[in-house]
């Protein structure tokens, strides 16, 4: 019942949600000449750099390494960004929370939605360059991409709800998250092939939830395969579990946000 009421409140305040998403997207490149266009230009420059670097200068044993790198990097940046920025989003919107009433979940949803749009733009640029350079991919496998993107967004919403709530009461957590997020890059198979991992690193990578999300993106776009069923099930479990715990924790403590902030 509480969840249904929250959904109704969010829908009733959908204009606010939309405006906050736009604010997040425009705020990063505020007062620049290109404005929103930087969301296309930035990933395009990065992808072109990887393409030139790993096809003409630094040869890798992995075929089309730039594709492998890009197909894992953008979803990782999305998850990492939601981890860092999302954990702090309630605290950073303290002024708005104190001044007016609205469903506090809108702050989380707007943060994830704006990061997700940037993620989509980056992936659109990757697929476009793959077409231009005649990199093959499986059209049928590509049908699974929207599904795994939705599951990824659900996972991000879940852990943002949890972490943003805790940070309101334990501010030190945001600094710990920032430190740990740097380590995550090295224990997530973004720039290396998971099959080549050995020893303790292989164990750490296996316990990292981000690993399974990134591997599915590699399978769909780089390998051109239908995603591993085991990986999909794990990602769904991570997403549903994070959402259930996140909704419970957030609803339990959101009434105290204004006084704590």
Summarize the structure.
With 261 residues, the chain is mainly α. It has 14 helices and no strands. Helices cover 78% and strands 0% of the residues.
Kindly list the characteristics that best describe this protein.
mainly alpha, 261 residues
Structural class: mainly alpha
What share of the residues lie within helices?
Answer: over 70%
Low-pLDDT ranges: none
Gyration radius, to the nearest Å?
Answer: 19 Å
Folded structure, characterized:
This protein has 261 residues and is mainly α. It has one domain (2-260). Helix content is 78%, strand content 0%. The chain contains 14 helices and no strands. The chain has helices spanning 2-12, 14-27, 38-57, 65-87, 89-92, 94-99, 105-132, 139-142, 145-169, 172-186, 199-207, 209-223, 229-253, 257-260. Helix 3 crosses helix 7 (105-132), helix 4 (65-87) runs parallel beside helix 9 and helix 9 (145-169) packs parallel to helix 13 (229-253). The radius of gyration is 19 Å and the shape is globular. The model has no long low-confidence stretch (mean pLDDT 83).
């Amino acid at each position: 019942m509480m969840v249904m009421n929250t959904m109704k409140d969010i829908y009733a305040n959908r204009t606010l949600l939309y405006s906050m998403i736009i604010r997040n997207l425009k705020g990063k490149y505020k007062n620049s000449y290109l404005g929103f266009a930087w969301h296309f230009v930035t990933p395009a420059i990065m992808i072109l750099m990887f393409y030139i670097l790993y096809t003409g200068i630094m040869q890798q044993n992995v075929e089309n390494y730039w594709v492998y790198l890009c197909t894992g990097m953008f979803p990782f940046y999305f998850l990492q960004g939601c981890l860092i920025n999302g954990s702090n989003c309630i605290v950073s919107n303290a002024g708005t929370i104190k001044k007016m009433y609205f469903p506090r979940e809108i702050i989380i949803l707007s943060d994830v939605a704006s990061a997700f749009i940037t993620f989509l733009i980056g992936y659109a640029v990757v697929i476009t360059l793959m077409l231009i350079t005649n990199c093959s991919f499986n059209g049928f496998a590509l049908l699974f991409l929207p599904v795994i993107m939705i599951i990824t967004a659900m996972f991000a919403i879940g852990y943002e709800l949890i972490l943003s709530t805790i940070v309101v009461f334990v501010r030190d957590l945001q600094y710990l998250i920032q430190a740990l997020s740097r380590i995550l890059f090295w224990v997530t198979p973004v720039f290396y092939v998971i099959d080549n991992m050995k020893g303790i690193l292989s164990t750490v990578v296996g316990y990292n939830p981000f690993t399974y999300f990134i591997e599915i993106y590699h399978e769909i776009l780089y390998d051109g395969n239908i995603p591993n069923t085991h990986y999909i099930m794990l990602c769904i479990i991570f997403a549903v579990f994070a959402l259930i715990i996140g909704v419970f924790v957030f609803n339990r403590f959101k009434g105290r946000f204004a006084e704590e902030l």
